[in-house]
Amino acid sequence: xxxxxxxxxxxxxxxxxxxxxxxxxxxxxxxxxxxxxxxxxxxxxxxxxxxxxxxxxxxxxxxxxxxxxxxxxxxxxxxxxxxxxxxxxxxxxxxxxxxxxxxxxxxxxxxxxxxxxxxxxxxxxxxxxxxxxxxxxxxxxxxxxxxxxxxxxxxxxxxxxxxxxxxxxxxxxxxxxxxxxxxxxxxxxxxxxxxxxxxxxxxxxxxxxxxxxxxxxxxxxxxxxxxxxxxxxxxxxxxxxxxxxxxxxxxxxxxxxxxxxxxxxxxxxxxxxxxxxxxxxxxxxxxxxxxxxxxxxxxxxxxxxxx
Length: 307
Ligand SMILES: NC(=O)c1ccc[n+]([C@@H]2O[C@H](COP(=O)([O-])OP(=O)(O)OC[C@H]3O[C@@H](n4cnc5c(N)ncnc54)[C@H](O)[C@@H]3O)[C@@H](O)[C@H]2O)c1
Known about the structure:
Helices cover about 40% and strands about 20% of the residues. By secondary structure, the chain is α/β, with parallel strands linked by helices. Helix 1 (about 10-20) crosses helix 8 (about 210-220), helix 3 (about 55-65) crosses helix 5 (about 85-105) and helix 5 runs parallel beside helix 6 (about 140-160). About 45% of the residues are buried. The chain binds nicotinamide-adenine-dinucleotide. Nicotinamide-adenine-dinucleotide binds next to helix 1, strand 2 and strand 5.
């Protein structure tokens, strides 16, 4: 198939690109390299790479000609970056996604796979694991724009029939991730025997999904017809302080945990609890993420640090 991946030089995009290239697909990546280029040379040489902005409608239109599937992953992310740049965050989301939808319709692309986020659930996970039907509660520019785009793309499905899957990723981690995110940040601190800095009590929970499982889910959902919102979650709830302790253990580090108050700008992101259900994913594809956090952390240790 001919596949366009926006944001394909980023963490999830580069891992997905590798997988799709190895499967023999004809891949084009559009990325403005805001976060650098995470594509390995061997893969880079086997794709068409275009350095450009997803907000450029003419460019997006040109790249979707003859395309079967679009993975739309380009985004501004990282809590501090988003909190400092809410307008750019929303611009890239809203204008970029509009360009993708319009170009897809103009060029008869069959499928859009959109990277949404579990962040749109906000503070709703009190007692139960999060299913796709639960009323969402987006409170940040990032989460608001993601939810807007889910609805916008669903409207395109209603009116024009284009197939859409909005993927609600739950804290993806693994190879090629940078230290905007908590797992690689703790790894770096642990390997340097520096304190592992935990915001707040450390008792807030998250559901960590290993990158290979995430890519597997994306690939399996490529065939889905219609319009769907699907959680990509590991279904395991981890406190941030336990994550820090586990990374200390895996890295055999002498680091202490240092609890610090979250800066004011992070408050809207600091939800107490988040754990997802992947039942819908299982029902649709026969697959759900299975790599345990410990297994995933040990893989990072082996791949990134050679032991
Ligand atoms: N990593 C996670 O845990 C997670 C969780 C939920 C949702 N997501 C979503 O998944 C997608 C991929 O995330 P990631 O972790 O790989 O992030 P990432 O920052 O590593 O990748 C995003 C890529 O988009 C590119 N980009 C940014 N603005 C662009 C623009 N205007 N035009 C073209 N390219 C642009 C960046 O250069 C980067 O390579 C994003 O849409 C993100 O919101 C990720």
